[in-house]
Amino acid sequence: MFVVTSIFFAGSALGLIFLVLLHSGKGGGLSDMFGGGIGAQTAGSTVVEQNLDRITIVTALVFVFTTVALGLMF
After folding, report:
1. Does a structural domain hold residue 21?
2. DSSP 8-state symbol, 41
3. Which residues contact 31 (CB under 8 A, 6 or more apart)?
4. Whole-prediction pTM value?
5. CA-CA distance, 43 to 20, in Å (whole number)?
6. Which of 7, 24, 34, 58 has its CA 20 to 30 A from that of 48?
7. CA count, 13 A, side-chain hemisphere, 6
8. 10-46: pLDDT as tens digits
């Protein structure tokens, strides 16, 4: 059980870092490379940005739950 939780923890941590870097900031971000910033008037208005937000939230929740689970195991 510990090994499975640790794998999910490490995967979600790396995924969360990658997803946060994809978000656009004030001057744009890596999401512009994938068409997230083309023609967008406001940040987060495109379908790409909305989906990126949803995926980031799910990954963050997995990270939080695995952190709590690992904390309770010890």
Report:
1. no
2. S
3. 22, 23, 24, 37, 48, 49, 52
4. 0.74
5. 14
6. 7
7. 5
8. 999 999 999 999 887 765 556 566 665 555 555 546 8
